[in-house]
Amino acid sequence: MARIAVVAGDGIGTEVVAQALKVIDVVLPGEVTATEYDLGAARYHRTGEVLPDSVLAELAEHDAILLGAVGDPTVPPGVLERGLLLKLRFAFDQYVNLRPSRLWPGTSSPLAHVKPGEIDFVVVREGTEGLYAGAGGTLHRDTPAEVATEESLNTRHGVERVIRDAFGRAQRRERRKVTLVHKTNVLTHAGSLWSRAFEAVKADFPDVETEYQHVDAAAMYLVTQPQRYDVVVTDNLFGDILTDIAAAVTGGIGLAASGCINPSREFPSMFEPVHGSAPDIAGKGLADPVAAVLSASLLLDHLGHADEARRVSEAVAAELASRTPGAPLRTAEVGDRLAAAVAA
Amino acid sequence: MARIAVVAGDGIGTEVVAQALKVIDVVLPGEVTATEYDLGAARYHRTGEVLPDSVLAELAEHDAILLGAVGDPTVPPGVLERGLLLKLRFAFDQYVNLRPSRLWPGTSSPLAHVKPGEIDFVVVREGTEGLYAGAGGTLHRDTPAEVATEESLNTRHGVERVIRDAFGRAQRRERRKVTLVHKTNVLTHAGSLWSRAFEAVKADFPDVETEYQHVDAAAMYLVTQPQRYDVVVTDNLFGDILTDIAAAVTGGIGLAASGCINPSREFPSMFEPVHGSAPDIAGKGLADPVAAVLSASLLLDHLGHADEARRVSEAVAAELASRTPGAPLRTAEVGDRLAAAVAA
Ligand SMILES: CC(C)[C@H](C(=O)O)[C@@H](O)C(=O)O
Ligand SMILES: CC(C)[C@H](C(=O)O)[C@@H](O)C(=O)O
């Protein structure tokens, strides 16, 4: 029995997560318990709490977390990001932030030169270090002498394990290629650590092809030649930016799934659509649940249900291929169709 | 008499700079002296020197620097970047790194949904602070305990002056809009400084519209809606990444010009194409000099020759509009055509 903690969150989060659960229920009937946790902007406004320690301890007892979306413009920047999302990533040592990018048949890219099927890569973004460490400070606030700092912290331990994960994934893929993205010509200290760790791990994977790109060049190539990528490994902040470009060139953040993974399974991993709570369309049943359902597929794969994961992603592929561009959709209807396809 | 220091540099740098000088000579006949400085990968290999203090002192005596491209794969990462390019930006306090993006008539974007003329914005990238400060270090190198840091340093002084420059530019443009890009939800210290400085400066420009975007969202919107931007102001590293996306969506880095500007004119400003030295096509006379010539136009504008700057950019517009897509070009012929157009 897999124990899943469900953090539906705010806005469309609740709507799309309901569809993901529907699909999980059908593909693993009777094998999953889902426990809901009320976290996000709504709880913060109601109680002032973001993530009580007792809730964190309860979440730790689960096999995985399925998250919808948290956030609302009424919450000050950083409160839910640092206090909830990043806190979970760090507390559960989710060092592999996995973000697959595919241009699915039936969808279209804003790029004129790429056709469905031609983009298929995965970004392995480091999830527990770098500029996300929260190391920084402010002196002389609100005076002309003010200085504010942010520090990027990179350990050999943290860098090497995520690079090793990326190579392992590449080895299981057809093209077997890993691209390291950093900015070694300017961030010479961290860049050198990343490069040296990359060279060391590479020696253990002689059948994997490698390349290096500066982050600015990679941002450009994601637009001009996204077909060239297979597995991209990069640091926390670069990964944040590059995966949004990747989402843009594959038809939008509405289809992008992600996993915050602790490969050791010592702590639960977390799966969530990349999109936010979208307050503008919340409550109307208009949100596309595909990113949440694809996140559920990553969750199933992580829990060892590779076949079930594939059935879910194939159902999504069929759904997308059958859509009429521009036609309106209803969240629950898409969920029902996907559940039916998975059951068939 | 304007004194221009010319750092042609490596690879195609020398070829494209020659065309830019040709055009400057025609548009300001007899009013410019150009002094060449031998800096870059070639000099580094020959003498081991990157930027001797005596050369730095000589450069300081000029009104502006025109740079082609420096770098070569044979030089270790960081040597020329930190030792030459960034050293000049910092030594001459070039805090406005100006990068205009236009989708010129006659060129085409990889984006299917935008037409020539629809993209026209400028990124004002901070040039003297942030993660480019070079503050970082390494402990326990090459052991499992290694840690490497990079620190982003942001001062109220440095942030406010570049934001003020961006508002000033917006006020002189038609749409009068400034977008602040940062990552305030994660980089809370630096993000707060940037936000508060932005709010303070904004009060002095009531006729300028403003918006804020997280860097990941901005990276996405540069692909999905690049038309929405007018003036974008952001930090050093975000600006590095965003301007390469901007170059990609406006037809490539081959057309992108930039200025590293010290608005006080206390020290010389520096103008350079965004592209690199392109060793693969160097010496063949095949490089497109348009980015270098547009950089010369920014140089002319900075030195107070607004009319001449406009004549140069109009010549470039005509050149691009007259090109047959895919037709080969010869560097010197393009330079001759542009010089003739400017003279006419
Ligand atoms: C919400 C924010 C903290 C988060 C991040 O920066 O990682 C988001 O942008 C993401 O990509 O998951
Ligand atoms: C070469 C490098 C130091 C430089 C930068 O990062 O600023 C370049 O990418 C640029 O954008 O001018």
TrEMBL record, chains A, B:
Span of domain Isopropylmalate dehydrogenase-like: 3-338
Key words of the record: Manganese, Metal-binding, NAD, Oxidoreductase
Cofactor(s) the record lists: Mn(2+); Mg(2+)
Xref: InterPro entries: ICDH/IPMDH, IsoCit/isopropylmalate_DH_CS, IsoPropMal-DH-like_dom
Pfam family, one: Iso_dh
Domain of life: Bacteria
GO molecular function: magnesium ion binding; NAD binding; oxidoreductase activity, acting on the CH-OH group of donors, NAD or NADP as acceptor
Gene3D superfamilies reported for this sequence: Isopropylmalate Dehydrogenase (3.40.718.10)
PANTHER family: D-MALATE DEHYDROGENASE [DECARBOXYLATING]
Record-given protein name: 3-isopropylmalate dehydrogenase
